[in-house]
């Protein structure tokens, strides 16, 4: 067993802590966002564990994903190979998310120091300043969520020469944390950004499928419509939750699989993720339960019959959309939902219809509602 240390999500403290956790000279690390309450976890963890990532998961139930140093370094090595070699990394994602952790791990594995962007809300200019400060003789990388990419693309399209120079200097921009809208991908390509779409989770030590192809050592299969992943990057499981670990990680002779809960298609070479098996959207890199949003919306006077569905958004990827028969102020709905569930959960569109379409069973026809929301 080894000690587990809660470390504030600040580069000056988190980077050395993760480096020590990886080489075994320090405690395992649980990165914690500023102002966040630490999850209830033991103060000691199994020896292989280097990082514990606290996540709400798709259900809103807190989880503590235990990831070994071997899994983190295997992921970093496979990424390095997929991208064409080691390089400098710009840290533009929070370090308490697995994607931010992996930027740090990749830099450590490459023998470099991750370069964080300026503190505060993400801006394209902050990213540009960090990228242009990197030594030009080495390869340069970063990782973003689609919302960040949207802001970078807008800055380039608006004529910001420094942002354009910065994104052209990057050898790869990894995009994860949610669906990348086709329109945004096309705009990024036109501006010359070397986008690599990544797919993975905390349970797979971050992205382990790039542009539909699994990284070296990673295996993919689809069972009963569910995407399942295997390989050296799998997490150890969930701290203090043996039942959830057993349900999510399947042990088979000679191989262990992670059940992602995502729907997808696998042709033997390329994975296409088609959505969640449950009703969750990832907006701006954060998972939002549509069921919880709907419950909050239906608690607003006059909106008891409102339905919440997913909708595409060029900046946020996917967003909650309220479909209702009652005219209502969207700003008021956003205020109520945001106060209860967080800003990411606040619906960004509202569609008023004469009546809610129903299935023969009397339940709302959610497919029809989602199509209706898309047309509006």
From TrEMBL:
<feature type="domain" description="AMP-dependent synthetase/ligase">
    <location>
        <begin position="40"/>
        <end position="239"/>
    </location>
</feature>
<dbReference type="GO" id="GO:0016878">
    <property type="term" value="F:acid-thiol ligase activity"/>
</dbReference>
<dbReference type="InterPro" id="IPR042099">
    <property type="entry name" value="ANL_N_sf"/>
</dbReference>
<dbReference type="InterPro" id="IPR025110">
    <property type="entry name" value="AMP-bd_C"/>
</dbReference>
<keyword id="KW-0436">Ligase</keyword>
<dbReference type="InterPro" id="IPR000873">
    <property type="entry name" value="AMP-dep_synth/lig_dom"/>
</dbReference>
<feature type="domain" description="AMP-binding enzyme C-terminal">
    <location>
        <begin position="293"/>
        <end position="363"/>
    </location>
</feature>
<dbReference type="Pfam" id="PF13193">
    <property type="entry name" value="AMP-binding_C"/>
</dbReference>
<dbReference type="InterPro" id="IPR050237">
    <property type="entry name" value="ATP-dep_AMP-bd_enzyme"/>
</dbReference>
<dbReference type="InterPro" id="IPR020845">
    <property type="entry name" value="AMP-binding_CS"/>
</dbReference>
<dbReference type="InterPro" id="IPR045851">
    <property type="entry name" value="AMP-bd_C_sf"/>
</dbReference>
<dbReference type="Pfam" id="PF00501">
    <property type="entry name" value="AMP-binding"/>
</dbReference>
<protein>
    <submittedName>
        <fullName>O-succinylbenzoate--CoA ligase</fullName>
    </submittedName>
</protein>
């Amino acid at each position: 067993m080894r000690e587990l240390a809660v470390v504030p999500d600040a580069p000056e403290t988190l980077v050395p802590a993760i480096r020590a956790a990886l080489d075994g000279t320090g405690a395992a690390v649980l990165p914690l966002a500023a102002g966040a309450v630490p999850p209830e976890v033991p103060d000691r963890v199994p020896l292989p564990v280097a990082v514990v990532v606290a996540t709400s998961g798709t259900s809103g139930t807190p989880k503590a994903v235990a990831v070994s140093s071997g899994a983190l370094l295997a992921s970093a090595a496979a990424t390095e190979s997929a991208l064409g070699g080691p390089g400098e990394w710009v840290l533009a994602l929070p370090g308490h998310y697995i994607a931010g952790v992996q930027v740090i791990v990749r830099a450590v594995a490459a023998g470099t120091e991750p370069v964080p962007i300026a503190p505060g809300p993400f801006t394209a200019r902050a990213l540009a300043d960090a990228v242009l400060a990197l030594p030009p003789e080495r390869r340069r990388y970063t990782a973003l969520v689609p919302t960040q990419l949207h802001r970078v693309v807008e800055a380039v399209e608006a004529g910001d020469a420094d942002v354009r120079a910065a994104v052209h200097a990057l050898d790869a921009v990894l995009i994860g944390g949610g669906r990348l809208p086709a329109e945004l991908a096309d705009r990024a390509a036109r501006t010359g950004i070397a986008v690599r779409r990544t797919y993975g989770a905390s349970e797979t030590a971050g992205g382990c499928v790039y542009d539909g192809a699994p990284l070296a050592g990673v295996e993919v299969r689809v069972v009963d419509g569910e995407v399942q992943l295997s390989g050296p990057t799998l997490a150890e499981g969930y701290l203090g939750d043996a039942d959830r670990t057993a349900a999510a990680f399947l042990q088979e002779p000679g191989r262990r699989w992670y059940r992602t809960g995502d729907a997808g298609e696998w042709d033997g070479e390329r994975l296409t993720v088609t959505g969640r098996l449950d009703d969750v959207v990832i907006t701006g890199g954060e998972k939002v339960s549509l069921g919880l949003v709907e419950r909050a919306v239906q608690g607003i006077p006059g909106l008891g019959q409102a339905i919440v569905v997913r909708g595409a958004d060029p900046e946020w990827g996917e967003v909650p959309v309220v479909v209702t028969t009652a005219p209502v102020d969207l700003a008021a709905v956003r205020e109520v939902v945001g106060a209860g569930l967080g800003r990411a959960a606040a619906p960004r569109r509202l569609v008023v219809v004469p009546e809610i379409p129903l299935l023969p069973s009397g339940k709302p026809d959610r497919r029809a509602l989602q199509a209706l929301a898309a047309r509006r």
